[in-house]
Recover the amino acids of this structure.
C-alpha cells in the first residue's frame, strides 16, 4: 500500500477535480486559438517560429510553441493538448506547469541546435509529445499503481500516433520537435519524480 505522505503520491483532497482540471486545460486551448486569431490579424507573428542556429526572431524560442500554420494544424493539436493537459492538471497543477516549462525549454534548445538551418518550426506538437512522455515515465518512476495504469492506458490509446510521429520523417512536420519533446517529457518526469504532487 503506497504511503499517502510519500512524495510520489497525492491524496484526492490535494488534487483539483475533473471539472476544474478540464477548465484549466480548456483555457490553454483557448489561448492557442486566440494566438491563431492574432496570427491572422498580425501576419508578422507567422515568422516568429524556432529558427535553427539563427539569431533572427529569438522570441520564437518561446512563442513558436503557440503558433500554428493552419486551422487543421491547430485542430489536431488542440484535442491532444486538451486531453493530456486535463490528465496532468488532475494529477498536479504545480508539477504540470513546471514540467511544461522544462519540456518547452528542451524542445526549443534541441530544435534550435539540431534542426535544419533555414527551416522554421512552429506548433504545440513538441509539448504534446512531451506530455505523453511525462505520463508514461511517471508510470514507471513514481511507484504508484495508479500512475502505472494511467500510463498503460495512455500508451495503448496514443502510443501508435506518437511512434509514427518520431519514426517517420515527413515534409512539413518537425521531427526534431517531436523527438526533443519526448526527451523533455522523460527528463521532466525524472527530475520531478521525488517532488510531491
Amino acid at each position: 500500500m503506497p504511503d499517502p505522505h510519500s512524495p510520489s503520491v497525492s491524496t484526492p483532497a490535494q488534487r483539483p477535480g475533473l471539472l476544474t482540471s478540464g477548465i484549466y486545460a480548456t483555457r490553454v486551448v483557448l489561448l492557442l486559438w486566440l494566438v491563431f486569431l492574432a496570427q491572422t490579424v498580425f501576419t508578422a507573428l507567422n515568422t516568429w517560429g524556432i529558427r535553427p542556429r539563427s539569431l533572427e526572431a529569438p522570441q520564437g524560442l518561446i512563442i513558436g510553441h503557440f503558433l500554428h500554420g493552419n486551422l487543421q494544424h491547430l485542430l489536431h493539436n488542440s484535442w491532444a493538448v486538451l486531453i493530456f493537459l486535463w490528465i496532468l492538471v488532475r494529477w498536479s497543477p504545480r508539477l504540470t506547469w513546471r514540467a511544461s516549462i522544462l519540456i518547452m525549454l528542451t524542445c526549443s534548445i534541441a530544435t534550435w541546435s539540431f534542426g535544419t538551418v533555414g527551416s522554421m518550426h512552429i506548433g504545440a506538437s513538441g509539448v504534446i509529445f512531451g506530455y505523453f512522455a511525462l505520463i508514461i515515465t511517471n508510470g514507471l518512476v513514481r511507484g504508484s499503481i495508479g500512475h502505472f495504469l494511467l500510463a498503460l492506458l495512455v500508451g495503448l490509446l496514443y502510443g501508435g500516433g506518437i511512434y509514427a510521429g518520431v519514426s517517420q520523417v515527413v515534409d512539413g512536420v518537425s521531427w526534431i520537435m517531436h523527438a526533443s519533446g519526448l526527451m523533455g517529457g522523460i527528463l521532466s518526469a525524472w527530475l520531478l519524480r521525488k517532488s510531491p504532487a
Notes: The chain has seven helices and no strands. The two ends are 18 Å apart (CA to CA). Residues 18-41 form the longest helix (24 residues).
